[in-house]
């Protein structure tokens, strides 16, 4: 057979096999999920399909599998799929069926968290805003209008999955589903209605008859047969409410999300591995990483408010899909090891030894073999313990795993995986000039700012969601104020005060911009106060209120108002501020959205004219447009928007999200060093205080054409586009510190990059970390040249770390190799 025919033969064969696949039985007992009767250890990772592109999915899922996962988890995003009531969208990166089939094709299981409330730092927690605006609704509680809508959407998704035979009970990959989400965390204020609601959720979900178990996370009173699961930084102390429910960790936070104005969060590989190893030591059998790939908040999907466009999450796969090393590799070793212990962990008798000072051993024994976990949860003191005649040193805040209870195969604090340092490189497209050449046009604000003309009016201040149905971030509030001579006696002392629930306010009086403000530091509500000069007769007041992601978490979060509250004219008396006029019951005129949004100026086909000359800088409410060539190669592409203020960016008509590089991260809370020891929380190990909170914005390769591409920016605050440029994210330096008798693996992450030079190498007692390595007092004299021969010119290389392969050292202690290489 010619190779080509062989290929056809095999694909026909696999087609026949997959179409004749029979039902998989998924159940559970108190120990683990069972798949076709076998207890299984599940290593799962969250990837939210709309936060990447269908073109990225195969690679992301493949890298998850190579990282030792067997399951991919995702939420389903109601507001993305049903943007208008009973009008559905499953196109492009919303193609849920394609995503699940990709998981199946990669040979993995899927965990579908239908919710349909998602949280997830997603706009409005995934609820459609039209839902909130339905007559008589009370959301997320025992309310018939709400329950009918929730059931309708949940059924729609279940039916869609069933039609495509995607549940394991039909031979598909979905082994688990979730109804509701973290309701237990917020349930108190809902009282009895909350309890009735959660019971109804359970009954409703059960009635959908999907043939695989349902879970409810953070729901200690989950009605049977729902499985109650845990979310958090650590879940080792968690016990399910029912003895027949396995210990499952549905959200193990691998890092943290980023907010506008917030520094970069970082959770170390050592601490994350410690949390996972502890969870399995204490009987856990199902772990899901939230997130395994975080990705990007394209369009207006970021929640919050004030959640940034990047949703990197410091996850094992970075925003662009690169391996985040050492996190990915350190966890991979742990997954493979735990999977190799599946039988004993899910069947073994468990015993433990307490060594005091939160040092303990857990022994699993089954069928004549034993596996051990030795853990030291003390956050500062290392420990040496004796187990069955052997002494083991346990670094503080670490777990050692001994699959045979003799030799340590893994310690969570000893990272043998390489550290990879990625940098941004300038666009290397052919003939691409350094500076982009721009055209521009103003957002037409004459109607609103000069004349106060809107599309509807009311004698009250309307809440923003109610006015817009969230069809845009922008809502213009306009009114006029008539002053007579007496009012003006007050002269210069007049102050305009706007009490707003956010998220950004631009105020104009009599055609002039008088100020802009947004909340800094956590509270969404702020009061804008600015001195104004008014004239006799009619004065025009125009207030543009801008949302930056709707709130996604908390009891009754969906009722949180946005937009203007009160608007007043106040006078600054010596005895305090005195209200002169209150505009709350004025006649207000409203306009939803921007003219440029309506005209779709971001569309490549847009015929609207842009100007080539007098390119403005620092001009508010301005549209900019340029063309560029795609960078060569396969490295992920980003656009550097430093110099811009705030707004939106589109590439070839597709939104790459909000930008706000002028919003600097707060000044304090960062530390120069990061100690992995001790309980992690999202205020630990922060970096980049005082720097721009997001400079680079992901442009997925699939958005780009080979020839000419168009970038359109809408700039709201005023920015300078002359610094804007395209770059690629490439690996620059790779380092590793590996103990003797282990294998060091160095890789330049593919994409044709090779190791071009050894920048540091010492086998002996080196100290320091990537960028700051130093030699110790003893080392092998031949190691550097041996490594040069083995590695330079290679895409990756494997090194046996031993005196046998790297030369003798004359060191007395345990020897290690420290190496730093350049990739090019
Ligand atoms: C959802 O609602 C539509 C009408 O709005 C109805 O036609 C459809 O049958 C409902 N689906 C379910 C599963 O109730
Ligand atoms: C950790 O160890 C130190 C030194 O032995 C001890 O003082 C401290 O109490 C321990 N911490 C905990 C939480 O046990
Ligand atoms: C127990 O171990 C024996 C010998 O290694 C093996 O043949 C047998 O299959 C094992 N039993 C189970 C239940 O794993
Ligand atoms: C283990 O440590 C103890 C206490 O330091 C020591 O007395 C003993 O000799 C050690 N055992 C071995 C096998 O090294
Ligand atoms: C918002 O959506 C609801 C429900 O679809 C509809 O009744 C209402 O008219 C919409 N409001 C606006 C301002 O578009
Ligand atoms: C702003 O509005 C909030 C809520 O409506 C109210 O509690 C607060 O007192 C107002 N503040 C001022 C200064 O008017
Ligand atoms: C009111 O006057 C006081 C004293 O001059 C000043 O500190 C304060 O900032 C003023 N407030 C406003 C809103 O102008
Ligand atoms: C590494 O292996 C060599 C040879 O087997 C052995 O002598 C040495 O003690 C081992 N080192 C460590 C740290 O386990
Ligand atoms: C921040 C947070 O919610 N942490 C939670 C992590 O999980 C533990 C239970 O395992 C909770 O007690 C914490 O509150």
UniProtKB/TrEMBL annotation:
Residues 738-824 form the SUEL-type lectin domain. It is found in: Secreted, Extracellular space, Apoplast. Keywords: Apoplast, Glycoprotein, Glycosidase, Hydrolase, Secreted, Signal. Pfam families: BetaGal_gal-bd, GHD, Glyco_hydro_35, SUEL_Lectin. Its EC number is 3.2.1.23. SUPFAM superfamilies: (Trans)glycosidases (SSF51445), Galactose-binding domain-like (SSF49785). It catalyses: Hydrolysis of terminal non-reducing beta-D-galactose residues in beta-D-galactosides. GO terms for molecular function: beta-galactosidase activity; carbohydrate binding. One of its GO terms (biological process) is carbohydrate metabolic process. GO terms for cellular component: apoplast. Its main location: secreted. The keyword Methyltransferase does not apply. Belongs to the glycosyl hydrolase 35 family. This is Beta-galactosidase.
